[in-house]
């Protein structure tokens, strides 16, 4: 299996080559076609197995297709307000930065520039509010600060088409279950859900079952 046979666009293949990824990892090989097809995904794979690109590459491809379609339909070029289409929840500030950098790098060759917003707590909220003016295509956030921004009407999640829970086990270990629940209430019911975790405790399983609809299961023996 190569990245090309997984159905990625030439621009994304360039980005992959620039990062010197020669072959897709196992989780990438399984997740990329499913995410491209719009399926929910539950992936259990160890740290370092390439989970970020497993969701970022296919989601970038779909965002690119959406933008091309908007252009064909003659949406106003001048309208700069972007709607959040992809929301990635991460447990820590450090991880929000890492995922943000990876997504920015992988998006680097796309013909239309995407706006990626990285949001985290433990830093002043005002610059993040300013950055979100005009919207964003992709938001990567820790749960608590996202709720603060939602309470301040700094962004809307009404147009999110894909939710990613990255490092779901750590999100739960850090006590974010209630925050995640409150965020879910603000998302459209009809959406794609992608769930990535390195471990699979009963709490992780419960969250996955509550969130996912007929997911493609990767490295999972039994989710029932
Ligand atoms: P995980 O989220 O599963 O812990 P990451 O997405 O952070 O893993 O990736 C771990 C490392 O592997 C990163 O340095 C990333 O750039 C690299 N990587 C990801 N995919 C590939 C690939 N297909 N080939 C080589 N390196 C890769
Ligand atoms: Mg990861």
UniProtKB/TrEMBL annotation:
- Where can the motif Q motif be found? 1-29
* Domain of life from the UniProt record: Bacteria
What's a GO cellular component annotated to this UniProt protein?
cytosol
Q: List, for all copies, the residue spans of the domain called Helicase ATP-binding.
A: 32-218
Keyword annotations for this protein, in alphabetical order, are: ATP-binding, Helicase, Hydrolase, Nucleotide-binding
Q: Where are the annotated coiled coils located? A: none
Give TM segment ranges: none
Which residues belong to any copy of the DEAD-box RNA helicase Q domain? 1-29
Tell me one GO molecular function of this protein.
ATP binding
Give the UniProt family note.
Belongs to the DEAD box helicase family.
Q: What is the name attached to this protein's record?
A: Superfamily II DNA/RNA helicase
Gene source species: Undibacterium pigrum
């Amino acid at each position: 299996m190569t990245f090309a046979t997984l159905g990625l666009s030439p621009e994304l293949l360039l980005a992959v080559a620039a990062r010197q990824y020669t072959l897709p990892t196992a989780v990438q090989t399984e997740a990329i076609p499913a995410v491209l097809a719009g399926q929910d995904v539950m992936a259990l794979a160890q740290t370092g197995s390439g989970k970020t690109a497993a969701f970022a590459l296919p989601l970038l491809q779909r965002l690119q297709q959406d933008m091309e379609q908007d252009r064909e339909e003659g949406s106003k070029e001048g309208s700069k307000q972007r709607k959040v289409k992809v929301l990635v929840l991460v447990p820590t500030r450090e991880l929000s930065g890492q995922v943000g950098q990876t997504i920015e790098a992988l998006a680097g060759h796309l013909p239309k520039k995407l706006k990626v917003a990285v949001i985290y707590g433990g830093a002043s909220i005002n610059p993040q509010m300013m950055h979100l003016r005009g919207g964003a295509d992709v938001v990567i956030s820790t749960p608590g600060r996202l709720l603060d921004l939602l309470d301040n009407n700094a962004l809307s999640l009404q147009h999110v088409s894909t939710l990613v829970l990255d490092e779901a086990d750590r999100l739960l270990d850090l006590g974010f279950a209630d925050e995640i629940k409150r965020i879910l209430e603000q998302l459209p019911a009809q959406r794609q859900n992608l769930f990535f975790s390195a471990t699979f405790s009963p709490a992780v399983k419960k969250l996955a079952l509550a969130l996912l609809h007929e997911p493609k299961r990767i490295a999972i023996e039994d989710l029932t």
